[in-house]
Amino acid sequence: MTWKKSFAALVAIILVGGSGWTVYQILDDESAVSPDDSGTAFESTDSNPANRIRFSETQKAHADLATEPVRRTDMQLHRVLPGRFAYDDTKHVAIRMPTDGVLRSVLVKVGDSVDKGDPIAELSSPPIGDARNRILAALSEQKIASKAANWENEIHDGVRVLVDMIRDGQPVEKIEQMVSDQTTGMFGGRLLTAYSKSMLAEKIARSVGSIGDSGAISGRIVRERESDRQQAAAELQATIEQALFETEQAMLNAQADLAGAERKVLIARQTLATLIGSTPTSASGLDLSPNDTDVSRLTVRSPISGTVERRTFSATERVSADEELFVIADTAHLWVEADIRNRDWGSIHVREGDTVSVTVPSVNGEPQTATVHYVGRQVDPQTGAIPLVAQVDNSNGRFRPGQFARVSVPTQMRRDIVTVPRSAVVDLEGIESVFVSDGDGYFPVPVELGEASEQRVEIRQGLSPGQVVVVSGAFLLKSQLLLEGEE
């Protein structure tokens, strides 16, 4: 019995010693884990089989797991600003009542698509009628002045042709034929009479001169006939000069009258254009014919192609000047407006033509790219912010003016840092972690996060370049890990 008691005591000593050694090893392992500055212990759980998840190839295929090696990259940081969609000012028009009047009819409703120049309403306004009457009167004066100017131009041109033929000494018969084909007014007869008298005096003086040389006619008669020739030539020259001067003056006066009439038409059209809020050129289409008695009627037409966004009045309503009738806008492109607060002035550097990212909390979908239209220069005294306006494509009609948005604007660039996709990071009982793959399974590793972009996040501690992390399916691994921990 004594040896049995001795063997039992020896076994007890061995068991007690082994247990003490095991406790010592556990404590020694725990003391080897050094926490980081924040107090979080970053240790690999690769040695803990309980934290390792193993999938078969079939399970991997169904789980749709994807991995990616950890690497050092450059990362563009962004600042997210609150924003709101607005109409593009260059494609947005508020059509207002040009003057007091009555709406005869409204031809469109909210949501209708219109093309530039389409009629959208008709109104009646006495001031517009008065302005049109002035245009019609000015047009009548212009027509009269134009005919008078053309007439005086033709007379002046005909007289010049007649004078040139007279100075060339053309026969009277030929000149008379020309006068019948040209417009010379009263000056044709005067010039022809003076030319005939001059030609006759020239012929008589030449005949008397030949006879006087023979002594058959006294020298006094010869001198009288020469004097008559000279007087007739002088009268012809005076008639020519007077005809050229008077026809030129009449032509210039008629041209001045025509120019004055044309200015009256332009002024009348400008008055109507100012009244209805259009240009003189476009107002020319509003001039009614003299036979149209309804000169106070005005057809309001769309100045742009787009959609009727708002309609304020209905037919037969009396409307005052400058009251808004319609809002028409082309919403294929919208503006998204965001405020850059003073705390972000130094970090946000964008210029016209740069791109920003726009997301809408109320609309599911991928972020939309927008192009910076301008960055304001003046600080809003109420908000202390500078406006940033970007143009976004809205051809699919996803966005509406007034809708809230988030605008992601690039700030600084972080160079050569360890990053992983944001989808790789999961929360495990309050600790940010990623799942690492080593070929034998997947196990979680706690990490310290740094800056983040829209797609990637900086890893300050916990991972090294070259390690393979799960970037798709990490949530499934988290769920599996929690289930295994409950079993």
Protein architecture, described:
Helix 3 (126-167) packs parallel to helix 5, helix 4 packs antiparallel against helix 5 (187-214) and helix 5 packs antiparallel against helix 6 (219-276). The longest helix is centred in the middle third of the chain and has 58 residues, at 219-276. The protein has helices spanning 2-32, 57-63, 126-167, 172-181, 187-214, 219-276, 280-283, 474-486; strands at 66-69, 71-87, 92-96, 101-106, 113-114, 119-124, 297-301, 306-311, 318-319, 324-329, 333-341, 355-359, 368-375, 385-393, 404-421, 425-428, 431-437, 442-446, 448-452, 456-461, 468-472. Strands 2-11-14-13-12-15 form a 6-stranded antiparallel beta barrel. It is an alpha+beta fold and 487 residues long. It is 40% helix and 29% strand. It has 4 domains: 37-75 and 414-486, conserved putative lor/sdh protein from methanococcus maripaludis s2 fold, CATH 2.40.420; 78-90 and 330-413, Beta Barrel (Elongation Factor Tu (Ef-tu), domain 3); 94-124 and 296-329, OB fold (Dihydrolipoamide Acetyltransferase, E2P), CATH 2.40.50.100; 134-271, Helix Hairpins (Orthogonal Bundle). One of its GO terms (biological process) is copper ion export. Pfam families: Beta-barrel_RND_2 (PF25954), BSH_CzcB (PF25973), CzcB_C (PF25975). Residues 418-478 form the CzcB-like C-terminal circularly permuted SH3-like domain.
